[in-house]
Design brief:
By secondary structure, the protein is mostly helical. It contains 20 helices and 11 strands. The protein is about 50% helix and about 10% strand. The chain binds glutamic acid.
């Protein structure tokens, strides 16, 4: 058994694209496990498939981890005792261990051309059998090998999978399983260009980096028997394996683009907070069992345990993410959220603030904070802010239902009375405005028998062009006296013309 203090886990992404939510969930679970056990979280870049390598992908991995708040103890940029941590810098090691397996009769050189393999594959597919290498080179004599080498063919090294028997493998979540070895392939360990395949590099690295627990996506489970066979062939003790549950959509089907974007960057750009994304990801496959789901990273570290990982597929639900985001937005100081909103407002309106000296807030900072507070409930992420506050920055466009409300006979009276009271109001502090509106409602009920909504709807319509949105007193305090009077006057003119 591994001692508590020696937990070592790794996150081993391939730099083949933009980091997506699935990768980040794997990283997060490994990080949480390491941090909750006082262990080490290792970052290893698995770039053995050079054809799929993408420029800037490694940097994107660093950035994404940092954005989520996940730090690593060892990795390409920070070093560590078991480096290098980029597989393309460890080629001699893989070559040495591939040759070791050949020398111990656990692997062999294969000289088959890619044309032959391709043809074989095509034939197998037409026959409806799973494509698999026919093991032609498995039993070459020394002489045959020499002849092939004399032709200058660069061989690959293949694993000599046992032809009979079974391989047992254990996943901490799924328990013990086994496969018949006859169903497995003589998979490639080392390619002819000297690069290892994923299987070889992954096992050699996990061994030499002293990884104690491998936690990774469910899609790697089918590789596990091969990995176990490799550990056996090397005579090494395998780590513990945990395959995280699949992520599915609300209909329990495979995720598609329609269920939401999968790139982490998209969420970042849309203005989801990192702590909300982390919280959301952590609960895809894990339950804290503390009665609360809303957690910071620190709180998750406190309650993380492998025992509470789930076996059933994790459901990806954007509404849930929106909920987490709203909750985490509320947990942040208002001034901070306001600062985060600025770029979105700037981009949408060319300015960050529409503060006026005659509004209810002493300066643009206070105005922005009030704006954020006013629309919290309406938005899922910060990029939705401009849409929710457009009426503060631009001339309003009257929605149809707002026009209908203003066409009612009471509207003219309401707007006239509001105009009078707003002019007389000493200041537009939200509390003062709220009091003024209460008085206005009282007065119009007494004089004209108007119900509350008959007063509030025309005002809302005239000031914002809509019937929903932030509370009316906040709208007025945010707009400022002049803008409110102008908007009301404009509507009153239209009403007057109609008469
Ligand atoms: N490089 C693999 C990936 O991109 C790592 C799988 C594993 O953790 O073993 O997911």
């Amino acid at each position: 058994m591994v001692a508590e203090s020696t937990v070592r886990v790794r996150f081993a992404p391939s730099p083949t694209g933009r980091p997506h939510l699935g990768n980040m969930r794997t990283a997060l679970f490994n990080w949480l496990f390491a941090r909750s056990r006082g262990g080490a979280f290792v970052l290893r870049i698995e770039d053995t498939d050079q054809t799929r390598r993408i420029e800037g992908a490694v940097e994107a991995i660093y950035e994404s981890l940092r954005w989520l708040g996940l730090d690593w103890d060892e990795g390409p940029d920070v070093g560590g005792p078991y480096g290098p941590y980029i597989q393309s810098e460890r080629l001699p090691l893989y070559q040495e261990w591939a040759r070791y397996l050949v020398a111990h009769d656990k692997a062999y050189y294969c000289y088959c051309s890619s044309e032959r393999l391709e043809q074989m594959r095509a034939e197998q597919l037409t026959r409806g059998v799973p494509p698999r290498y026919d093991r032609r080179c498995r039993n070459l004599t020394a002489e045959e090998r020499r002849a092939l080498e004399a032709q200058g063919i660069q061989p690959v090294i293949r694993f000599k999978t046992p032809l009979s028997g079974r391989t047992e493998y254990t996943d901490l979540l799924l328990g013990k399983r086994q496969v018949r070895n006859a169903t497995l392939d003589d998979f490639i360990l080392l390619k002819s260009d000297g690069f290892p395949t994923y299987h070889l590099a992954n096992i050699v690295d996990d061994h030499f980096m002293r990884i104690t627990h491998v936690m990774r996506a469910d899609e790697w489970l089918p590789s596990l028997p091969r990995h176990i066979l490799l550990y056996k062939a090397f005579g090494w003790e395998p780590p513990a394996f945990i395959h995280l549950p699949l992520i599915v959509n609300k209909e329990r089907k495979k995720l598609s683009k329609r269920d939401g974007d999968m790139e982490l960057d998209w969420y970042r750009r849309q203005g989801y907070l990192p702590e909300a994304v982390a919280n959301f990801l952590a609960l895809m496959g894990w339950t804290p069992g503390t009665g609360t789901e809303l957690m910071t990273l620190d709180e998750m570290v406190q309650s993380f345990s492998l025992e509470r990982l789930s076996r059933s597929p994790a459901v990806f639900d954007m509404e849930r993410l929106a909920w987490f985001n709203r909750q985490h937005l509320k947990r942040r100081p208002l001034s901070e959220v306001a600062a985060l909103c600025r770029p979105y407002l700037q981009e949408a309106f060319g300015v960050e603030t529409a503060w006026r000296p005659d509004c209810g807030f002493p300066d643009p900072e206070a105005w922005l904070s009030a704006l954020v507070e006013a629309v919290y409930e309406e938005i899922a992420c910060l990029s939705e802010i401009p849409g929710a506050v457009r009426f503060l920055f631009e001339d309003i466009v009257m929605e149809l239902e707002a026009q209908q409300v203003l066409a009612e006979p009471a509207a003219g009276v309401v707007l006239a009375e509001f105009d009078q009271r707003l002019r007389r109001l000493a200041d537009l502090h939200p509390a003062s405005v709220q009091q003024m509106l209460a008085d206005l409602r009282g007065a119009l009920k007494a004089s004209h028998g108007l119900a509350g909504r008959q007063v509030m709807f025309p005002l809302r319509a005239a000031l914002t062009g809509r019937l929903h949105g932030p509370q009316l007193h906040l709208i007025i305090a945010l707009l400022g006296r002049e803008r409110c009077l102008e908007r009301v006057a404009r509507v009153r003119n239209v009403l007057a013309e109609r008469r």
